[in-house]
Amino acid sequence: xxxxxxxxxxxxxxxxxxxxxxITLQKNKGRKKKASISDLCVDCRACTxxxxxxxxxxxxxxxxxxxxCSSCPIHCIIRVGNTGACQRFVNQKGVxxxxxxLQSYEDVKEIVGQDHEVAIRKPLITGIGAGTTYPDTKPAxxxxxxxxxxxxxxxxxxxxxxxxxxxKVKIDTDMNIGQEGAPVLIGKKRVGHLCxxxxxxxxxxxxxxxxxxxxxxxxxxxxxxxxxxxxxFRLKVEDGAEMTLQVGKPPVIDGEAGKKMRVGCGSAxxxxxxxxxxxxxDEVVVLDSHLIGQFTEHAAGRELGATYSGLKLKARRSTPxxxxxxxxxxxxxxxxxxxxxxxxxxxxxxxxxGMTVLITETTGERAAMFRLDEKGSFIxxxxxxxxxxxxxxxxxxxxxxxxxxxxxxxxxxSARAGVTKIPVKLNQAIHxxxxxxxxxxxxxxxxxxxxxxxxxxxxxxxxxxFTYVPTPAMVVPLxxxxxxxxxxxxxxxxxxxxxxxxxxxxxKDKSPITKQH
Length: 517
Prior knowledge:
- This protein is an alpha+beta fold.
- It has 4 domains: 2-98, Alpha-Beta Plaits (2-Layer Sandwich), CATH 3.30.70; 119-164 and 413-516, no CATH class; 165-259, no CATH class; 266-400, no CATH class.
- The radius of gyration is 29 Å and the shape is globular.
């Protein structure tokens, strides 16, 4: 890379951005600070993307010996003894070598942490229907013990009111629903916000303690309960889409039902379906709101022997064959209503009359084909059989569009007193996998750090297991399972432990359903 000192203003943004600290600010003859690039540079071009005056450009290959890395689209040129921008590969005497050797499970098991022992992986009973011990001045409703393959196991259960509650709703769709960070509303009540997007999905963050304890807390609690119990609910993103959603069902966005979740972004499609694209047309463009793919310029196309088409796209370039998209209500979640709009022009040295172009979405739901005529115009044509095969491969590898939800809760509150007399020891046991927390029998993921903050897939919990109270708070069935010795060591309520068989018989005798039969 080369710095043009006549246009460099010495702002230092490139210094902050360079992943290898290859750029420093040096004083020139006029005693002004200007950017200077050392021989650590690998031509990753990160600096060119942030320079406000475009003072940095690629002038020539780096001086000295260098190897071009092909492990990502950046294609760093790495000198002997140096690493690439990702700092993964080092040039050792002309050979690129991963600078951390392959690790076996034995190498990392102490960092990973052991999984729960088989005996405590599932609770003896669930907290569903257990009742509660609020205000938690006495032992939990049920503390049961049983022998599992010679190991004494205890499960403590309760239905805990939880103000520290939230729901993350995942909507598998390419359809645009609104601006990231926008409020999510029921009527005029704010119940959450639109989060960052994940791979082929939109994420809503709903509820949470601040909204539950706010003026619209009851509406928030009711919504969260409906979502967790897989009922239909309606929301609107401010200045965005109106949605009818239900966990396990396709989303309905502005009256249109979602059909497919994309198999990959436009760039990923190049690697996934390149063997079909190379036969389908002279050029293939996959439209996407994040990364648009152009096959013949993409690394996948070059590796498969594609000849560059000369096509120029109307989009901001990331790396060869990869372009940043924009959000909208058109093809592939972009603003493009007519697919040919993506083409800005072409280089006549490469693009010749008769050249064919296939343009599609990441789901394959819409596709169009064009041929370049003698006048330099792209004329629509019918999809050829090989083009249809490529589109069918995309569509058949997509998953159905659907709604799912993760409940997030903080179980570090007073309900722990119903489990143990020493609350912090319960926290420690959970994080050290000596005790396991489940929700209605479903597995949880425990977030690291302090407290007991967990995630659970609501589809793994029985319908109607979640309720709410108008404090407002969600009521959640919790189970803590551990070895008896661990339970006693943490100050568990030994006097309240009952045999599992005894409790199950008591429940059966009391059940109105059992008595009817």
